Amino acid sequence: MKDRTYVALGDSITAYRNNVKVYMEWLLEERETLGFRRMINNGIGGWNTLHLLDKLEERCLQHQPQFISIMLGTNDHAIYKGKEEPAVSLDQFKFNLCEIVRQIRVSAHERGNAAPYILLMSPPFIVTETNSAGTQASQTRLLNYVRAVHEMSVELDTGYLDVNAITAEATLHDGQLYRDNYTDQNDGVHLNSAGQKWLVPFIRQICIEQRA
């Protein structure tokens, strides 16, 4: 099983960032133990599910991975300056996730490969506020997207990791503590190295379970 490829998909919380050791970097240190030949981080800053759906071949399918993690929802739920609704509605979000999973499985079948393991991850806890750019973030609204990820994981028979619960419970839902100690540049959104490290043992365990 050491010829396996892992592709991580997501937004800027997954993507490589300056001065932050993201969860894929922690996991890369254990690549051989986890049984992967290649581990590809294809998180892209600013992306939501519409972006991923549009670029799925380029960012994922062409690599023919055996293990795929998807963590999106933060940008989908955001209400940007001058807008009154989230960037991606909840119904559209669910449809996009369903279509992403469907296309992954169809692609594997058409290429003569076994269906890959897909891990749907809920977006992390977020501090409720309007930032300097006028973007409205809301943990209450985000929880609707978190529930949608779980619902889709059950409906589509994928893996599931509740990153929102992991990150919220680590600081007892204390937004100020979370912002000051576990987000990059104290922005209340992007996990810093310490926050990213919270995810590692959970993903590691799933990788090991799927290695057999």
Question: What does this entry look like structurally?
Answer:
The structure is a single chain. This protein is an alpha/beta fold and 212 residues long. The chain has one domain: SGNH hydrolase (Rossmann fold). It contains ten helices and seven strands. Strands 2-1-3-4-7 form a five-stranded parallel β-sheet, with helices on both faces. Pfam families: Lipase_GDSL_2.
**Do you know the CATH topology?**
Rossmann fold
**Total E-strand runs:** 7
Euclidean distance between termini CA atoms: 8 Å
Strand order of the largest sheet: 2-1-3-4-7
Overall pLDDT confidence: 96
Second-tier CATH architecture: 3-Layer(aba) Sandwich
Helix content: 40-55%
Task: Give me the oligomer status.
Answer: single chain
**Rg over CA atoms:** 16 Å
Taking the sheet with the most strands, its summary is: 5 strands, parallel
List the domain count as a whole number: 1
Question: What does the overall shape look like?
Answer: globular
Q: Return the structural class.
A: alpha/beta
- Main CATH class: Alpha Beta
Per DSSP, the total helix count is 10
Fraction of residues in β-strands:
15-25%
InterPro entries: Iah1-like, SGNH_hydro, SGNH_hydro_sf
GO molecular function, one term: hydrolase activity
Keywords: Hydrolase
Protein name: SGNH/GDSL hydrolase family protein
Task: Quickly list its features.
212 residues; alpha/beta; Rossmann fold; 5-stranded parallel β-sheet; two-stranded antiparallel ribbon; 46% helix; Iah1-like; SGNH_hydro_sf; hydrolase; hydrolase activity; SGNH/GDSL hydrolase family protein
